[in-house]
Amino acid sequence: MTAEITALDLEEAGAVLAAESARFASFGWMRGTSGNLSVVLTRDPLRLAVTASGHDKGELTPADVVLVDGQGAAVHGGKPSAEAELHARVAALTGAGAVVHVHTVASVAMAHRHPGGIVFKDVEMLKGVGQPAHDVEVTLPVIANSQDMKVLGDRLEAARDPRMPAVVVAGHGLYVWGGSPRQARHHTEVVEWLLELELTRR
């Protein structure tokens, strides 16, 4: 462990991530072992607790977490998600305290229909991501997928809209962030609701 982060800190973060993962898994958004979550533990240097790779996200325990650095490399624990590097990039880029990555049908389907971005307007639920419900168009960016997390991070950085705390990776799923795990959860649920609404409309 590090001087700034204790074993108890990591266990407490693991308990939060396990609870959040179970919630998302219950919605069918983290099927099999898909998806991953993270929470920032320190900002300088950047350290995140990330869900461990290869685990059923509906059955995580507080021990199923890995401490990673600002490049997503393991500092303590087992094997982090392959996408830990992108979580760290999002946290550094946006100042987020937590990042959620889920694989939802609506995000993949809508990105296929709207590869240039998904536009939302005149919907009350936009307030859930801090935007007016009317008279404003907000675009959820869509970026092409890559197995190279640096490439994916560059695409996310270039495409992101500060008004929308989320990005869809085409053919893959949804990345969402917030100041805390709770806010990241709320943003995820709101963005997914908006996606499901648009999918239903069309």
UniProtKB/TrEMBL annotation:
<keyword id="KW-0486">Methionine biosynthesis</keyword>
<keyword id="KW-0862">Zinc</keyword>
<comment type="pathway">
    <text>Amino-acid biosynthesis; L-methionine biosynthesis via salvage pathway; L-methionine from S-methyl-5-thio-alpha-D-ribose 1-phosphate: step 2/6.</text>
</comment>
<dbReference type="InterPro" id="IPR036409">
    <property type="entry name" value="Aldolase_II/adducin_N_sf"/>
</dbReference>
<dbReference type="InterPro" id="IPR017714">
    <property type="entry name" value="MethylthioRu-1-P_deHdtase_MtnB"/>
</dbReference>
<keyword id="KW-0479">Metal-binding</keyword>
<protein>
    <recommendedName>
        <fullName>Methylthioribulose-1-phosphate dehydratase</fullName>
        <ecNumber>4.2.1.109</ecNumber>
    </recommendedName>
</protein>
<keyword id="KW-0456">Lyase</keyword>
<feature type="binding site">
    <location>
        <position position="103"/>
    </location>
    <ligand>
        <name>Zn(2+)</name>
    </ligand>
</feature>
<keyword id="KW-0028">Amino-acid biosynthesis</keyword>
<dbReference type="Pfam" id="PF00596">
    <property type="entry name" value="Aldolase_II"/>
</dbReference>
<feature type="binding site">
    <location>
        <position position="101"/>
    </location>
    <ligand>
        <name>Zn(2+)</name>
    </ligand>
</feature>
<comment type="similarity">
    <text>Belongs to the aldolase class II family. MtnB subfamily.</text>
</comment>
<dbReference type="InterPro" id="IPR001303">
    <property type="entry name" value="Aldolase_II/adducin_N"/>
</dbReference>
<feature type="domain" description="Class II aldolase/adducin N-terminal">
    <location>
        <begin position="15"/>
        <end position="199"/>
    </location>
</feature>
<comment type="function">
    <text>Catalyzes the dehydration of methylthioribulose-1-phosphate (MTRu-1-P) into 2,3-diketo-5-methylthiopentyl-1-phosphate (DK-MTP-1-P).</text>
</comment>
<dbReference type="GO" id="GO:0046570">
    <property type="term" value="F:methylthioribulose 1-phosphate dehydratase activity"/>
</dbReference>
